[in-house]
Design the sequence.
């Protein structure tokens, strides 16, 4: 152990005064510096080493040796005491990781400047406070040395165990280990150990005189009060008397080696056996020791006597209150820190586990800090009171966590749901087939963000309460907008349908006109045939009349004219047939368009049915079909417009009948051209229709696959929603199971605490057994010493008995000689007297 820096400070100051009757009074005050020192030790255990003894015996020098110094506590060369009151070193000495040692140097006993009242008070306080009491004495143990310990007899008058108990039989259980140090010891112990020498000196003296009884009372009381005692001897440190008076000025290495080695061995023995201050297995900390000193001094200053257990109970009660308040304050500090509003909300499972960890830490801290002065039953009561506060605070924080979770979850949900913006379609053509898929994916992302951002046990409650309504509200608004666009398109389709009907009527009238024209052409052809027949008849008649002489020039001209007419007739027939075919095809196409118009009407009726059936989930499912049907309807109307346009072109190409009659050739050429144009347009129209049909089929297939995919997504969402509900149910079941496990764990923890307490009790019992073993060993040593003394006593008694027998024989001879000089009557009286006391004289 290295040198301990510091200085001696007054521990207990003794103030002298006078009362009203001029009698001396004494007040024992704990100094403020000493209070600060003990408060600095705080919760560490404290071991108290007290050094006492008669004045001018070197107590302070011995105290300094435990500080590895020569001049720590004051040492003086005069007969006046240097130490008044009780002093303490300003810095504790660290014994181990949990314990500090404080050294108390007391005022010398039997001082000529103090009366025995002061000595008794100082001795009583020192014994009460000490973990180990070192009594320093010069020379060997003689009657004067034992007489100096006469204060021991009066300890029971100045110290009480408990107010409700009487007697001093158990005072020894509360007194410290007693070390008797014999300085300047020069006797030869003849093989005895210092402890054996001490026990021999404490043996009762023979005799029944008042003086012997008084001396034996000191010995008996000393052995009764200090059950654990030992002795050490030290030779004189220097031979030079002048240097011995100022030993603190001497170099340690200049002292006698036997002395220094003896001091070193004694220091080791003291430090090895020094234990924290303990009362009834309750180890005192620095703060508890401070409270105990204050309790003792208050009792002395108020005219009472220190009561050990009552003072201890008061100190423990104060310490319990302090530990309770410290644990409560630490719990509230940690709870307010971890569960502050800015850190909430927290998931319920994490909230409970965090709170449980705090509670366990607080209880473990309380257990560790109070294990030295509280038994298991008292600790359970303290835990119960603290648990009530914890349960109340837990409810407050849990409610706050729920409220914050509800508010934050709702705020996060509303912020996220606002990101679902309603579409701004100008017309139905802008509605894409994957529109719902996009919104579904957007919704999935929002749900993931909500699950990541929202915390606390109200997270799922808000979701199940608010999500379905908001989502349905959003999609109802979307479908409402789409429905409105469909309504507008239906109105447009109705207008176009009306226009189609009017165009159809126009085409019919044109067809009728065309048929009339055709009929007129047929009539013209018939007329031309009649003219040709008439010309033939006229030719035959002219030939007959002219006798066969014919103007061959005219005849050839006429025949050429007839041939032209026949050719024209054939051409007209052919054109007529072609027009008939074209008319037939036009009628067929018209019939097809009539059927298409009927289909369009049916689709419009279907849209009306959809309109009347309302929106909702069914309309959301039919939305892609309606979009496709609407586009098909638009395309068909476009095709009809093209068809009617081609019919108008045909009608304009026909021209009027009168113009055709006047310019037949032009009409024929235009007819041929019209027929070719019509065929080309018809062919291109058919190709367009076929390509559009193929495109529509592909679109229908795409829409069908999209509808199937959308339905699958919808089913997946429904399934996921069901899974969430199941998870919520499972979570509630797990929460109930967790509460049950928590209760079971609390019961197990209680059992563990009980077992731990039982273990502590067993440890205490083991310690008591060890102390009992130590006591038995001491008693055995005492018995051995007594045995040695008895052997010595037997040897001495035999010598005494032999000497006594010799004396008795001499006396007997003298008596016999005297008897011989007596007469018979005197002899009889004398024998009768001896016989009455049991002595027979022959």
Sequence:
């Amino acid at each position: 152990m290295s040198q301990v820096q510091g200085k001696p400070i007054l521990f207990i100051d003794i103030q002298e005064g006078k009362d009203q009757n001029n009698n001396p009074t004494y007040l024992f005050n704990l100094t403020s510096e000493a209070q600060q020192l003990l408060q600095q030790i705080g919760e560490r255990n404290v071991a108290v080493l007290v050094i006492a003894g008669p004045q001018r015996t070197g107590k302070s020098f011995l105290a300094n040796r435990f500080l590895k110094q020569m001049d720590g506590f004051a040492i003086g060369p005069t007969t006046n005491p240097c130490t008044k009151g009780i002093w303490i070193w300003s810095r504790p000495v660290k014994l181990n990781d949990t314990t500090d040692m404080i050294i108390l140097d007391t005022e010398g006993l039997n001082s000529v400047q103090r009366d025995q009242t002061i000595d008794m008070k100082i001795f009583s306080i020192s014994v009460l406070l000490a973990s180990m009491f070192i009594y320093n004495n010069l020379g060997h143990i003689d009657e004067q040395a034992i007489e100096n310990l006469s204060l021991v007899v009066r300890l029971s008058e100045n110290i009480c165990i408990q107010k409700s108990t009487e007697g001093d039989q158990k005072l020894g259980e509360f007194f410290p280990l007693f070390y008797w140090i014999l300085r300047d010891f020069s006797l030869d112990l003849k093989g005895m150990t210092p402890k054996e020498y001490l026990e021999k000196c404490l043996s009762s003296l023979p005799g029944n005189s008042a003086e012997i009884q008084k001396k034996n009372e000191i010995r008996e009381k000393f052995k009764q009060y200090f059950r654990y005692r030992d002795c050490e001897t030290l030779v004189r440190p220097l031979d030079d008397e002048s240097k011995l008076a100022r030993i603190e000025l001497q170099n340690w290495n200049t002292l006698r080696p036997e002395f220094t080695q003896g001091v070193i061995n004694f220091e080791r023995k003291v430090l090895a056996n020094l234990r924290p201050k303990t009362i009834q297995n309750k180890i005192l900390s620095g703060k508890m020791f401070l409270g105990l000193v204050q309790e003792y001094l208050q009792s002395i200053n108020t005219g009472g006597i220190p009561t050990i257990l009552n003072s201890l109970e008061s100190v423990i009660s104060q310490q319990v209150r302090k530990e309770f308040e410290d644990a409560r304050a630490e719990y509230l500090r940690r709870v307010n820190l971890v569960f502050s509003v800015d850190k909430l909300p927290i998931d319920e499972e994490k909230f409970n586990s965090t709170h449980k960890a705090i509670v366990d830490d607080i209880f473990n801290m309380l257990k560790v800090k109070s294990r030295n002065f509280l038994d298991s039953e008292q600790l359970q009561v303290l835990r119960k009171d603290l648990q009530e506060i914890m349960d109340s605070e837990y409810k407050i924080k849990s409610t706050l966590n729920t409220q914050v979770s509800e508010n934050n979850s709702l705020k996060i949900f509303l912020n996220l749901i606002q990101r679902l913006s309603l579409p701004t379609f100008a017309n139905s053509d802008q509605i894409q087939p994957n529109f719902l898929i996009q919104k579904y994916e957007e919704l999935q992302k929002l749900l993931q963000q909500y699950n990541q951002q929202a915390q606390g046990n109200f997270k799922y409650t808000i979701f199940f309460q608010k999500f379905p309504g908001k989502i349905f509200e959003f999609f109802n608004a979307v479908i409402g907008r789409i429905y409105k666009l469909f309504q507008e398109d239906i109105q447009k389709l109705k207008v176009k349908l009306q226009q189609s009907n009017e165009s159809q009527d126009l085409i019919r009238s044109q067809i009728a006109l065309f048929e009339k024209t055709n009929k007129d052409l047929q009539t013209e052809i018939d007329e031309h045939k009649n003219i040709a027949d008439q010309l033939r008849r006229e030719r035959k008649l002219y030939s007959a009349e002219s006798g066969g002489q014919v103007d061959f020039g005219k005849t050839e001209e006429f025949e050429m004219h007839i041939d032209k007419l026949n050719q024209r007739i054939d051409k007209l027939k052919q054109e007529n047939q072609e027009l008939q075919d074209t008319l037939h095809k036009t009628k067929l196409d018209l019939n097809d368009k009539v059927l298409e118009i009927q289909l369009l009407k049916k689709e419009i009726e279907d849209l009306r049915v959809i309109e009347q059936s309302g929106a909702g989930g069914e309309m959301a499912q039919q939305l892609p079909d309606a979009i496709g049907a609407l586009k098909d309807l638009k395309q068909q109307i476009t095709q009809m417009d093209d068809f009617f346009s081609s019919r108008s072109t045909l009608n304009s190409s026909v021209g009027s009948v009168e113009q055709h009659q006047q310019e037949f050739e032009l009409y024929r050429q235009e007819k041929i051209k019209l027929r070719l144009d019509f065929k080309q347009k018809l062919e291109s129209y058919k190709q367009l229709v076929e390509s559009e049909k193929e495109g529509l089929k592909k679109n229908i297939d795409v829409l069908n696959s999209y509808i199937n995919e959308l339905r699958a997504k919808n089913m997946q969402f429904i399934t996921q929603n069901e899974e969430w509900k199941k998870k919520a149910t499972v979570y509630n079941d797990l929460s109930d199971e967790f509460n049950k496990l928590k209760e079971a764990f609390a019961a197990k923890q209680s059992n563990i605490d009980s077992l731990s307490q039982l273990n502590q009790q067993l440890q205490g019992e083991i310690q008591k057994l060890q102390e009992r073993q130590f006591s038995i060993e001491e008693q055995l040593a005492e018995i051995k010493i007594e045995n040695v003394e008895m052997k010595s006593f037997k040897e001495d008694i035999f010598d005494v008995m032999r000497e006594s027998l010799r004396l008795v024989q001499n006396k007997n001879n003298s008596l016999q000689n005297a008897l011989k000089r007596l007469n018979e009557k005197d002899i009889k009286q004398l024998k009768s007297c001896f016989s009455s006391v049991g002595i027979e004289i022959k």
Notes: The CA atoms of residues 573 and 656 lie 19 Å apart. Confidence is low (pLDDT under 50) at residues 75-82, 614-620, 647-661. The chain has 20 helices and eleven strands. The first helix runs from residue 32 to 41.
